[in-house]
Design brief:
With 297 residues, the chain is α+β, with helices and mostly antiparallel strands. Among the domains are: 52-132, Orthogonal Bundle (T-fold); 179-297, no CATH class. It has helices at residues 28-49, 57-64, 74-89, 99-104, 144-158, 246-259, 264-269; strands at 8-14, 17-24, 70-71, 123-126, 129-132, 163-168, 171-175, 180-185, 193-199, 202-208, 214-216, 219-221, 225-226, 231-232, 238-243, 273-280, 283-288, 293-296. Strands 1-2-6-7-10-15-16-17-18 form a nine-stranded antiparallel sheet. The protein has a three-stranded antiparallel sheet with strand order 3-5-4, covered by helices on one side. Strand 1 and strand 2 form a beta hairpin. Helix 1 (28-49) packs antiparallel against helix 5 (144-158) and helix 3 runs parallel beside helix 6. The chain is globular, with a radius of gyration of 19 Å. The two termini are 38 Å apart.
């Protein structure tokens, strides 16, 4: 194989996880430039939308938007617009305004006081500004990483890559002529691997919360908060969503985790599909939301 035909594969620590980037293209120099551009996109989205960075655009909006409208970037507008749309379609099963509850559980730094009961309906998005009708804290932890993966993929395309793959800790998107198999893995020392889908153009996001739980006020909690109850949800299930974009797939994993089969209408609205991996008396089963079993081990 000629040097110019060899794919580039790199891993970099960004978005709080190990991001794997692979690309193919006409020359090594083009792929190197594409890789640098993809990393720059990931870093840019982190700087703007991270809930852990007090200097981020999201942190500034959370601190000030309840007092007066705040100007926002195109990135924040796109993510917030998608989040509000999914919140409406899921009837609040996905709600980006759970930041105060996630912070109270210790999974986010406290960014602003939110003493009342707020919801996605209290977010007023108008053009390039946003205002909160009452104090609240937006949390993009369930959608921003997927958006960052989408931006990295577009950077690979724009810089000459003919095919590419970006995987950020379970948020995966690919493009190119060839399809590739995607698998999901159970946790634990005796984990099983299940085939999920063959993907050429599209995204898969997987969310598992069993390994993220921690004790808080003598109780176990996870970063998955049911927005309707404002309480943490403990689940051993793993939800995987296949969708056209990683931003949508990322957000819909939370809807699937909370609603189960009740998420089917929301998935159809976005041209998405989902598979749930769950433990069952010493073995694992992998099923689609229509009840069809994909595999068991």
């Amino acid at each position: 194989m000629a040097e110019s035909e060899r794919p580039l594969r790199r891993s970099v620590l960004l978005l709080g996880t190990l991001v794997e980037i692979a690309a193919e293209g006409p020359s090594r120099s083009i792929l190197e430039d594409a890789f640098v551009a993809a990393c720059a996109e990931l870093a840019r989205i982190h700087r703007r939308l991270s809930g852990h960075d007090r200097a981020s655009e999201l942190s500034r909006v959370n601190a000030l938007a309840a007092s007066e409208p705040q100007p926002i970037s195109d990135d924040l507008r796109r993510v917030l617009s998608c989040a509000l749309d999914i919140a409406e379609r899921s009837r609040g099963a996905f709600d980006p305004t759970v930041g105060a509850q996630v912070a109270a559980l210790g999974f986010l730094p406290l960014q602003a006081a939110a003493p009342g009961r707020a919801s996605w309906r209290d977010v007023e998005l108008t053009g390039q500004t946003v205002r909160y009708a009452k104090p609240l804290v937006l949390d993009f932890g369930g959608i921003a990483k997927g958006y960052a993966v989408d931006c990295a993929i577009e950077a690979l395309r724009a810089n000459g890559a003919s095919a590419g793959r970006v995987n950020a800790g379970g948020d995966l998107r690919v493009f190119g002529a060839r399809s590739e198999p995607v698998h999901i893995r159970t946790g634990g020392p005796q984990g099983a691997v299940f085939p999920l889908v063959h993907l050429a153009e599209g995204a898969v996001a997987t969310s598992a919360y069993g390994g993220q739980r921690r004790r808080r006020d003598r109780r176990w909690a996870s970063p998955l908060v049911d927005p309707r109850l404002r309480l943490p949800v403990l689940s051993t299930r793993t939800a995987s969503v296949i969708a056209p974009t990683c931003m949508v797939a990322d957000a819909l994993t939370k809807v699937v985790a909370l609603l189960g089969r009740g998420a089917r209408g929301v998935l159809r609205a976005y041209g998405a599909d989902a598979v749930v991996l769950s433990p069952a008396r010493g073995w694992w089963r992998c099923t689609r939301l229509d009840g069809t079993m994909v595999a068991a081990a």
